[in-house]
């Protein structure tokens, strides 16, 4: 394994040396220089005779990257053996480095666990939505697509973190598949936000427009949710592929070109915030027409339920703390928990706590018991327990808002 690392490092250094040669102005003709060269661990550029070239220690097992390696160029213009003695770590330094690596990947480990939980709950939710015909309606169709986008995002995040982020060799070698993985991950993320926006568009439209066909809305939302992100990510991919500065390290480093995708995402979140405010206003207006106590509580509950559905909570993380600060690690952990468990929260609220879903499953279970066992007496239907119904309104023409 160590030899494989060395050969890979040598190959990378060789290509990097060639790249540096193209950028270098070269040696002064009248002076004596040692020519550029490379070894197993590093690339050494032109160096004046009688001097030494220094560089940080390479990223290799057992090496301390905070130390300096050097290589002397003799008076006659020939290289001496490179000295990597300071690069070798003591046991204490190696233990400290292992702690630093663990801290660096802590938020990734947290997100992997969170995404795994979300995948499990999303798969169960989608099975329920597709299994029971009673749940086939426009609103559930939107939820299906939203859940699928959450599921794809979680899967791609896990693959990208495990195969790329946690493998330094992949980042440096930059095989084409890691760039493709980055692009597909970005598409899933943008599509996820697009379907959150579709949920806002759908709710707002059916509450504002009295006569509107659900099929037309589903077609529009399908274009917004799956086609528009493809166009945005396609433009981003084409522009970044033609950029020399941003076309490195599997495109993992942040780039201003990402705003080609993220600017519409941010705009959609703010639009959903506007939709939410207007939906709550209309909801309160409708609830005031119902002579029943506790309408304010119901409106508040409906607002809280809609926040994760529309992605409004992402506005809570606008600015990342300065790199290296004490708040940065807290920020990364909180964001990792929120991002990875978002799919789980939505599944719990809009599937497992959905009154319609619970009713359908209860009815199915009752029919199963009646068909399987022979009872001497008649079965009594189970009593209805308190559930969370998120159906705000189906049509303005006559469906009372229900938030119980």
TrEMBL record:
Residues of the G-protein coupled receptors family 2 profile domain: 16-91, 107-354
Subcellular localization(s) per the UniProt record: Cell membrane
Single Gene Ontology BP annotation: cell surface receptor signaling pathway
Membrane topology: Multi-pass membrane protein
A cellular-component GO term for this protein: plasma membrane
Listed transmembrane segments: 108-130, 142-162, 174-195, 216-239, 259-280, 301-319, 331-353
Swiss-Prot/TrEMBL keywords: Cell membrane, G-protein coupled receptor, Glycoprotein, Membrane, Receptor, Transducer, Transmembrane, Transmembrane helix
PROSITE patterns: G_PROTEIN_RECEP_F2_2, G_PROTEIN_RECEP_F2_3, G_PROTEIN_RECEP_F2_4
Gene Ontology molecular-function annotations: G protein-coupled peptide receptor activity
UniProt-listed SMART domains: HormR (SM00008)
Signal peptide: none
Pfam families documented for this protein: 7tm_2 (PF00002), HRM (PF02793)
Database matches in InterPro entries: GPCR_2, GPCR_2-like_7TM, GPCR_2_extracell_dom_sf, GPCR_2_extracellular_dom, GPCR_2_secretin-like, GPCR_2_secretin-like_CS
The family this protein is said to belong to: Belongs to the G-protein coupled receptor 2 family.
Protein's name in the database: Calcitonin receptor
Source organism per UniProt: Mytilus galloprovincialis
